[in-house]
Amino acid sequence: MIPDLTGALFVPDYSAVLVADLHFEKGSSRAHRGVHLPPYDTRSSLAALKTVLATYKPDRLISLGDSFHDQRAPDRLAADDLAAIRRLSDEMDVTWITGNHDPALPQTLGGAVMDEVALGAVTLRHIPQPCAQDEIAGHLHPTGIVIQRGRRLRRKCFASDGTRLIMPAFGAYTGGLNVKSAAFGGLFAAAKFSVWMLGRKAIHKVGSRSLLGE
Amino acid sequence: MNTESRDTFNAAAPLPLRFSEWFAGRGWQARPHQLEMLRTAQAGRSALLIAPTGGGKTLAGFLPSLIDLAETAGNGLNTLYISPLKALAVDIARNLDAPISELGLDINVETRTGDTPAGRRRRQLSNPPDILITTPEQIALMIAYGDMDRFFAGLKYIIIDELHALVANKRGVLLSLGLARLARLAPGACRLGLSATVAAPETLSEWLMPQAGQGGQKAELIFGAAGAEPDISILKSDERIPWSGHSARYAMSDIYKAISASKLTLVFVNTRSQAEIVFQELWADNEENLPIALHHGSLDVSQRRKVEAAMAGGKLRAVVCTSTLDLGIDWGDVDLVVNVGAPKGSSRILQRIGRANHRLDDPSRALMVPANRFEVLECEAARSAAKAGDQDSEPPLELKRDVLAQHILGTACAGPFAPDDLYREVTAAWPYRHLSRTSFDAAIDFVSTGGYALRSYDQYAKLKPDSGGLLRLAHPRMAQAYRMNVGTIVEAEMLKVRMISDRRRGGRRAGARSGKVLGEIEEWFIDQLVQGDTFIFAGQVLRFEGLEEHSALVSRAPASEPRIPSYQGGKFPLSTYLASRVRAMLADPKSWHLLPDQVRDWLSIQRWKSVLPEADQMLIETFPRANKHYLVCYPFAGRLAHQTLGMLLTRRLERIGARPLGFVANDYALSVWGLGDLSAGIRTGRLDLAALYDEDMLGDDLDAWLIESSLMKRTFRACAIIAGLIERRWPGKEKSGRQMTVSSDLIYDVLRSHEPEHYLLKAAWDDAAAGLIDVHRLAELLERIKGRIVHKALDEVSPLAVPVMLEIGREPIYGDADDALLAEAADQLIDEAMRML
Asked: I want to staple A9 with a disulfide (CB 3.0 to 4.6 A). Which of A18, B200, B437, B728 is the partner?
């Protein structure tokens, strides 16, 4: 499996690109309350996704849930963004795994909607299940923090203990949650896990013991 | 309100008998400028009084109101008094009590600030006092109510205190728009501005008056008599003056002696961390157990009020303070001002010195204490500037797009408005006198829908046109949001500093938060700390234990060597004026006789170990230190310009593979360090200094840097909050969870890539260019040093480089160096195949 700088994951054996937590239309989600954030997060995320797909030319694209920020998000999509999303399924097999933000998705998007996907022995789902093995999930938006030569660096990251993997959030407006925080408690065996931090030009593997808490 | 005076007054007094008797009864005489203010105001004309501290300015402002109200009190709002400080408002109100009761007047004075209870604020609107003492933010809030015409109808006087300080920041810009509105609500009111001595009084007198379409009116300028020449000395210590640092520890026993010999001393410092250190050191020396207190903006408000009350009550001998005591009335009878560290500007130091002896006829006594050798030069320059009375105060701010957006929304909250009318009104405010209609319309568009070119929020517009062509607020709850968001002060995100008990050390649990709150500290500072790090705060050494919601948990630490908080040096950069004086002094050994022997020695050692640049040269030194390589240059152009230069240099160094890691800047020098050998690079010609410092860096490199600059992101965040795009984080009301809020950094990135010409990006760029990145000054510098760069490769740090080397950089660099660091952090066992399952 090949982790990408954008936070996507390429699985060559299945010719599949995995992304998690796109949160499309997060920017417009509070527009009705007068919060007019730049409505460009969906196209930013799509542009990054397009680059990833052009790099790996996969047969499958699997989005691991929370692809849309809320239930009404698909209705708010700009026409060109919707068209770009639909085009994805013309070019490859697209699967939208449901998440807590998007438990149901309209048919208009193209692709299949599923709660879980099996990739060989590995299960793909949105929320990591306690004690699960051979699982790839999203939901938690993992980030890691290291201090090196007096500099504190905080980056989105993949997190894995060898039996399960949690993907970083891909969306342009998504924040992160420290992998050392309580939400990650109990997910990894005996707190022994590694993170793959997304640098600018490379991905860096760091052991959990070198990571800082908040 | 000190008006005691031996001034002679020779004009016919327009004072009513009751007032002249009151003056006489106190052994005072009204001063010429007080009477001139009175005459001007009584003639219905506006006036700007410029007088040094202690000139009876506040009474000069209020005299017209008091005389008028002696006859007419009880007929609604007569006078608005606007001050930049909440605390000042309360004290001014208290100080008015004396003359009002002694004159036997029946005048109702009230304050209205953010602290005023909602019930009283409501009552004030229905039953206004004669005199209302308030702040620019409250003016904005009041005019955003719909039915204020009657409230302001009888307003006669608008007094604006500390005008020189207000105009140089966004609060003044906000006030200028408020004044433009008041001109419509209360057309008969005259404006009475009160200001300290400034560089350009004429500009200030224009600022006070309506501008557009009315031919650049000016308020009548009235000058108070100059006070006695201040008695300024520079500390001559037997101790060694440090080569670097800001703590001035060496001078503590001298400062203590000065305190001990005076009644009440104000010890001014430039930063909170300095305040903490000086306070600690003075107490360590405090054999006589003198009551010495601490006062700075991070301390809990109640603690600050206690200190002010103790000062006023004569219970203190010294207060160590930051600029929190720069402005405002006196809380005590100060007879000595000590300024620790660099004075930064001539106007600034004159203001501080004026804090001592609020009586015009006695000279103010001040002692300047340089904290290091560079500051000796700066103090010497400031002393001669102050003696010459040279001013270098900041000019008023021009056109701020974010403040305009806030004002437009506030206008809509007051009721439907015609854009044409509002445009006319806004352009009467001095900062907006050149605002184009296009820019104004863009502002309306931004307020209404965010103003996005590629996708519209039209269906969610905040402003909707009604049938009569007026714009009206789409929903009343948007007015609520406006009221929560009003104002232009955007603090760095702050965390409460909360003490935990010793028992809980190491084993912190969620939910337990019994400890005492010591104050607030910038989030970015805490962000640097690892559990167990120690720092000084609120006068004690603390150990950082961890974060809990919005508190930094700390315990008391016995550490004798605390890691000291470094709050980015002084907030104010060295003024261009003082900088040029310092540079000239350094380049001219003949002027060194003014300097202490130690400083002369230091410069001589520099000349021996390295080079002292000629007046028209800029020195660059390169040397290795620890496992890094350094480049230090000495442009003497002020910290902000140096920071920008540092940013651009590191970009260029990164491009040529020198792998820069960071930089620090102070007012005199800039130090860049990295992993690559810079001396070798210059020797082999791989690194060309002339090309490195070429002016072309202000083109593409500047643009490219700004894309990812955290400085720019900070500026953008402030603009986005002021303009109402993102909401303020109120203590206790933080949105929980990562799902609700979008960080302003992410918004900035997305906006920058999709709509680089957006309204708010322009606002942020204007702010940054004029403020934090100081492009103008950098451009002058690069032009000046062309072909005049002197390079010296050294084996170790030079004397001149020491001060800047000890500053700690806070501005991170993004790019290859980050990856280099991450790579270092990576486990040795790294699996190249990156197998994760």
From this structure: A18
pLDDT, tens only, B671-716: 998 888 999 999 999 899 999 999 998 888 887 777 666 667 878 9
**C-beta atoms of A176 and B738 within 8 A:** yes
Domain count, chain A: 1
In the block, tokens 């400031």 appear at B382
Does the structure show a pLDDT above 70 at B823? Answer: no
Query: Can you name the residues that pair with B266 across neighbouring β-strands?
Result: B319, B337
Contacts across the A-B interface (CB distance below 8 Å): 156
Instruction: Of B458, B439, B804, give the one whose Cα is nearest residue B645.
Output: B804
Pick A147's closest partner by Cβ from B455, B474, B530: B530
| pLDDT interval class at A19 (50, 70, 90) | very high
Q: CA nearest B52: which of B360, B265, B385, B289?
A: B360
* Residue A77 domain boundaries: 2-210
> Of B223, B258, B282, which residue is a domain's last?
B223
Is residue B123 over pLDDT 70?
yes
Asked if residue B648 belongs to a domain, the reply is yes
- Structural domains of chain B, count: 3
Is residue B420 scored above 90 in pLDDT?
yes
- Mean pLDDT, range B130-142, rounded to an integer: 95
- B826 to chain A, any CB pair closer than 8 A? The answer is yes
| Structural domain includes residue B151 | yes
- How does the average pLDDT of chain B come out, rounded? 82
| B547 interaction partners in chain A (CB closer than 8 Å) | 214
B236 & B95 share domain: no
Residues in chain A: 214
pLDDT at residue number B33: 93
B655 touches chain A (CB under 8 A): no
Q: Mark whether B653 and B789 lie in a shared domain.
A: yes
CA-based nearest residue in chain B for residue A175: B738
Distance CA B482, CA B480 (A): 5
Q: Tell me which chain B residue has its CA closest to the CA of residue A3.
A: B834
Point out the residue among B510, B821, B830 whose CB comes nearest to the CB of A205.
B830
Closest-CA residue of B relative to A140 is: B738
Q: Which contiguous run of DSSP H or E holds residue B42?
A: helix B32-42
Q: What is the CATH number of the domain that holds B236?
A: 3.40.50.300
> % helix / strand / coil in chain B, to the nearest 5?
45, 15, 40
Q: B285 and B316 share a domain?
A: yes
CATH of the domain at A160: 3.60.21
A6, A43, A149, best to mutate vs chain B, most B CBs in 10 Å = A149
Which whole number is the average pLDDT over B526-539?
A: 68
How far apart CA B98 and CA B685 sit, in angstroms, is: 75
In a domain, B453, yes or no: no
Q: Do B155 and B65 belong to one domain?
A: yes
- The verdict on B192 and B259 lying in the same domain is no
Backbone Cα Rg of chain B: 28
Calculate how close chain B gets to A110, using CA atoms only, in Å. 23
How far, in Å, are A182, A191, B532, B554 from residue B509 at the CA level? 11, 19, 16, 13
* pLDDT the model gives residue A150: 55
The reply to whether B235 and B384 lie within a common domain is yes
Whether B453 has its CB under 8 Å from any CB of chain A: the answer is no
Tell whether B62 is covered by a domain: yes
What is the pLDDT confidence band of residue B729, given thresholds at 50, 70 and 90? low
At residue B1, the pLDDT reads 41
Query: Could you tell me the pLDDT band of residue B247, with boundaries at 50, 70 and 90?
Result: confident
For B374, the domain range is 231-388
Nearest-Cα distance to chain A for B293, in Å, is 34
Q: Which residues of B touch A3 (CB under 8 A)?
A: 834, 836
3-state secondary structure of B556: strand
Instruction: Identify whether residues B364 and B272 lie together within a single domain.
Output: yes
